[in-house]
Amino acid sequence: MTVATQDLKVLAVCIGKPEARPGKKTKTGINKRSTSETVSIGLKGLADDAVCNRKHHGGPEQAVYVEGNLSRLWWQKTLNKPVNHGLFGENLCIAGLDNQIVSVGDRFLSGDLVMEVTAPRMPCRVLGDRMGDHAFLKLYKKAARPGFYCRVIHPGHITAGTLVRYVPYAGQRISMPEIASHYGKRASPELIARYQSVPVHAKLRAFLSNGLIKF
């Protein structure tokens, strides 16, 4: 499928603070709330945004978590309830974007800021807590329209309402739903070669050496 360069708009910028998880000793930063302020985005993510479990979240390969607004609206219709910006723990929501078309290596440019897609968001228990229903995790996987993580190629700033240029990767197109469908599975040599040809998440690349798709 051919995907064209598009000029889109950032609908929301969301950041979170460390908050207690009910019944747990650990804290979470998943409760993101939109801000009207201009936010700095560096190599490790958004300034003042909490990432509490650094083993599985955050870091240079997962510096920014993005949701396309077309996917957010799809969820709103499917769940038959408001899906507010930040509900899934995303940092940015981009107007006119469908998560299903996004592939590894796609870039988002805004001023000096350059972000590059690395991998899909895989649902975890914390998301189930956030949604108040752990059955939602199966629904999220079945829906095949996951949000996605970006590494920051060049730092910059972002504000809700800012224009952002979406530049599709020119090589192999490996979409977020495709990676999510292969997650945790053994891969054929042909599939591994495809994955190795694109700028995937560094942990995923390391697992590929063992024939496994995981990060």
What does this structure look like?
- It contains 6 helices and 13 strands.
- It has about 220 residues and is an alpha+beta fold.
- Strand 5 (about 40) and strand 6 (about 45) form a beta hairpin.
- The protein is globular.
Give short descriptive properties of this protein.
single chain; about 220 residues; alpha+beta; 7-stranded mixed beta barrel; 3-stranded antiparallel β-sheet; 6 helices; about 20% helix; globular
Reconstruct the topology from this structure.
Layout: E1 6-15, E2 19-20, E3 27-28, E4 33-34, E5 39-42, E6 45-46, E7 64-68, H1 69-79, E8 92-95, E9 107-110, E10 113-120, H2 125-131, H3 136-143, E11 148-154, E12 156-158, E13 163-167, H4 176-182, H5 189-196, H6 202-208
Parallel strand pairs: 7-8
Antiparallel strand pairs: 1-4, 1-8, 1-13, 2-3, 5-6, 5-12, 7-11, 9-10, 9-13, 10-11
Summarize the structure.
The protein is 22% helix and 27% strand.
Mean pLDDT: 95
Helical content stands at: 10-25%
Helix count, per DSSP?
6
Judged by helices, strands and strand pairing, the structural class is alpha+beta
**Largest sheet geometry:** 7 strands, mixed, barrel
E-strand count: 13
Order of strands across the main sheet: 1-8-7-11-10-9-13
- Overall 3D form: globular
Runs in which pLDDT lies below 50 for 5 or more consecutive residues are none
Cα(first) to Cα(last) distance is 26 Å
Q: Per DSSP, what share of the residues sits in E-state strands of 2 or more residues?
A: 25-35%
Secondary-structure element sequence? Answer: EEEEEEEHEEEHHEEEHHH
Q: What is the multimeric organization of the chains shown?
A: single chain
Radius of gyration from CA coordinates: 16 Å
